[in-house]
TrEMBL record:
Family matches, as InterPro entries: Cu-oxidase-like_N (IPR011707), Cu-oxidase_fam (IPR045087), Cupredoxin (IPR008972)
Signal peptide (residue range): none
Descriptive protein name: Multicopper oxidase domain-containing protein
Keywords in alphabetical order: Copper, Metal-binding, Oxidoreductase
Record-annotated Plastocyanin-like domain positions: 73-159
Keyword DNA repair: no
């Protein structure tokens, strides 16, 4: 046996996988026919904050949609379970990647530049949507900074539904014989869907350079002091009335609430009605003895605090929602002290009539 020794610290390896990841535009390995195709390009724009100031944000625009130059969060991507997905990505402003958070594709298509490559000019990402659920997509170059700058969007994998069902209902996952969930039926259709991404903004970070901090330089990325708090890009002064954060439905319908934390705070979310946790990080919670052992849905009693970690996603099931205005409240707490930030509350709403 031959042993090849290398130094404990290899400057060349650090440079390649840390400071200066490899940039390239390779052909997509094992490229095959697609069922879904989207395009994404990098864009930057200014966003009005609650106090009237403007901050620069970066994100992924869809060049096929007119007026999509300032999407924050970036446009939702929806595919169906089992479909082959292609995304033609053109950074346009330096090298970037798209990481498909929770999808687990091949390394070349995972969008983690430190272990594969960063896209220099153009690349077609390819993966198969294996599991229905709630995911994110985001840039994985200088990840901590670029995620804060707004380079993320929601990715949803919907289950296949029965072709014979002409109503085309919405499901969290495919209902199967043997599904047993006392008190609720998350395998049943839902009548309304609320998709809420909570975020916070530290204006100091939005003045930093594209590569700030990547090479070990201290630019203050260990200090995060947000002063703005938002849901779906809507600041907390408007989040209870904006169409992007208010969902309307009929009383008595099943409602699916998808929650994601894009902030760097400890996020606590409460609902005023009983709900059930039916999915965590793209994995359903279900009871089906015929299919194997699963973690079952967990009841979240009204006004119980649910902590959502950074980049974590939950799906909550509200069966037969009662009539009324239901506030979904997010409290943002400091990541170290766990004290609530000043003005650190943002509220979305479900109106059931």
């Amino acid at each position: 046996m031959t042993i090849i020794y290398r130094p404990i610290f290899d400057p060349l390896e650090f440079d390649t996988f840390g400071c200066h990841p490899f940039e390239d535009d390779p052909a997509t390995p094992d490229r095959t026919n697609r069922q879904v195709f989207v395009r994404r390009q990098v864009a930057d724009w200014n966003v009005d904050m609650k106090d009237g100031s403007q901050l620069q944000f970066w994100g992924f625009k869809d060049p096929d949609i007119s007026g999509s130059d300032s999407p924050w969060p970036s446009k939702i991507i929806r595919v169906k379970q089992g479909q082959i997905f292609h995304c033609e990505f053109k950074p346009t402003k330096g090298a970037h990647t798209i990481h498909w958070h929770g999808i687990e594709p091949t390394p070349m298509n995972d969008g983690v530049g430190h272990t594969s490559f960063e896209v220099k000019s153009s690349y077609v990402y390819q993966w198969c949507a294996h599991q229905a659920g709630t995911y994110l997509y985001h840039c994985h170059k200088n990840t901590v900074l670029h995620f804060e700058m707004g380079m993320y969007g929601v990715l949803i994998v919907d289950p296949l539904t029965k072709p014979s069902d002409t109503r085309n209902p919405n499901y969290l996952y495919d209902p199967l014989p043997g599904d047993l969930t006392p008190g609720i039926t998350p395998g049943a259709p839902y009548g309304a869907e609320s998709i809420l991404v909570f975020d916070d903004v530290d204006p100091v970070w939005h003045k930093l350079d594209h590569n700030a901090g990547m090479c070990g330089d201290d630019v203050g990325l260990d200090k995060f002091n947000p002063t703005y708090f938002l849901i779906n890009g809507v600041h907390n002064g408007l989040s209870q009335i904006d169409r992007r954060t208010v969902t309307t439905t009929q009383a008595g319908k099943n409602v699916l609430v998808r929650l994601a934390n894009a902030s760097y705070s400890r996020l606590y979310v409460t609902l005023p009605v009983d709900a059930w946790i039916v999915e965590v990080d793209g994995r359903p919670l279900r009871v089906n003895r015929a299919k194997g052992a699963f973690a079952g849905p967990r009841k979240l009693a009204a006004n119980t605090r649910l902590e959502i970690a950074v980049a974590q996603r939950y799906a909550l099931w509200i069966p037969n929602i009662p009539r009324g205005d239901h506030r979904i409240t997010g409290h943002f707490h400091h990541w170290i002290t766990n004290k609530r930030h000043f003005d650190g509350t943002a509220v979305a709403k479900i109106i059931a009539t």
